[in-house]
Amino acid sequence: MLASLWRARRRGSCLDALPRAGRSCARLASVAFALALAVSPGVAFAQAEALLDEGKSLMKKGKVAEACPKLEESYRLSPRSATLLALAMCHEKQGKVATAWSEYIDLGAAARKEGNKRLEADAKARGAKLELSLPRLTLSVPRAAAIEGLEVMLDGAPVDGALWGQARPIDPGQHKVRASAPGRKPWEHSVTIKRGERKTVAVPALAKDASAAAQPAPAAEAPAPAAPVAAAPEKGSAGSGDGAAEPGKGAAGAGKGAAGAGKGAAGPGKGAVAAAPGKGAAEPGKGAAGPETDASPAAPPAAEEQEPSSGSSPRHTGSFVIEAGVAGGALIGLMDSGSFGDLSAYSYSYNIPEGELIAPCDDEVCHASFDPAIGPFAGGEAFIGFALSEDLHLGARVWGGYRFGGGYLVVGGPSASMRFGRLWLGLSGLVGPVGQEAKVTGIKGEIPSEVVHLNYGRSEVAVNAREGSLPESALVETLAFGGSVDVSLVLADLPSAGWTSGALLLSVSPTVMKGLDGWVFAAPASLGYRFY
């Protein structure tokens, strides 16, 4: 058998030896094929390893533009978590933060499947850090622009209609938006977006393309004159002249002078005249006045859709903004004086030229003194305003609540907020009543200015209060004026075409207010939803 194979090899083909050594040759072919399958993955793995090492080396040298393509090819040849981590880090250094963020998410999922909790936690941490600075682009398609067949493309890739109106992460830089639809002129727009920036591109209603709406048929090579009435109607005509001919049979198609789309056959022996684009032939008994080549498109029907406005504003701009949420925090009152009710039951004394005068108390000349008080409160907050742009909202803010242990706070005023990435920063002017339960330390009465010199220069004196007659604590109230700095973090951005479009915000509003009798400080935090 070996001799037969040797002779077959010398002849250059194993087929020549098949009559005597067919089985051996088939076995050799199977072994060779198996070796090829075994060697191929090894070669791809070796190539991937070489590309990975080369990509990492280029990254260390700062040549990320050269390193990233090599890492991409390495991951294509051998998709491993270590390669994906290096690729995501390369894209992050390259400034493609949205691409890197997506790769970190994929890396976390792969690490979870592998059971590598350390790598999964690292991928989540890196992705969360990038998410705060992701640029987001919203492709807004108003109802007037959403015609049948509309296709919106971003950088050459089609955007699904379900994603219209939603903010999508995108790499910083310049991007091209294109919209097209049958019978309409295409529209293109370039937008440049920076890291952490949010922009909306509104797709306008596409203008009609007159050349595509009704293309004139080419002139007939040899226009036929009106023929006499035939003995029988041709195949495909409607007989009575009010039916549509079959395509290409008796219809005034291309080269026959009809304006319709191959429909609209006239009656037997009568010239075809289209009454409207795509409609049937002329009424029975009303033949064409001239040759078929004289037919021309008629005006569109009056009920046809009118051309909508080509301009459109972003969905957030020019709309009302409403925010509502729950609030809570700490309320600090430094109101050292005030009133806790009827003080007429108390009296005080001071010196006058005639001797000592015992004067009754009232709210005009007497006031109570209080210790500072700190207490938690819970309530709500609201913002009502107008979006001058996607990143600037003007309006009014109101918040307030009940202080545990006694008291309240209800303040409001004009407010403005501006967005920086995932943060909203704002300022609010506030005014309103504040009440707080505080410990009563005593009551003081006012001494008239003309007798101050007789009372050792004192302008007020302690009220004579019987022991135990003063309440332990009382509600002190004041009208306060001030403002707050509002800092809000976007926990979830949920734009849509419906009324639920908005964002979930976590906010803190450090507040300082001056009361008529002292100061008020508050540190509220709120969780709210801003509808826009």
Structure, described:
By secondary structure, this protein is an alpha+beta fold. It has helices spanning 2-11, 18-60, 64-77, 81-94, 97-114, 117-131, 210-213; strands spanning 136-140, 151-154, 157-158, 167-169, 173-180, 187-193, 198-202, 320-334, 337-338, 347-352, 355-360, 366-370, 373-389, 392-403, 407-420, 423-446, 460-462, 473-494, 502-508, 511-515, 518-531. Strands 8, 9, 12, 13, 14, 15, 16, 17, 18, 19, 20 and 21 form a 12-stranded antiparallel sheet that branches. Strands 3-2-5-6 form a 4-stranded antiparallel sheet, with no helix packed on it. Strand 13 and strand 14 form a beta hairpin. It is elongated. Residues 1-22, 33-39 and 218-315 have low confidence and may be disordered.
Key features of this structure:
532 residues; 12-stranded antiparallel β-sheet; single chain; disordered N terminus; elongated; 22% helix; alpha+beta; 4-stranded antiparallel β-sheet; 7 helices
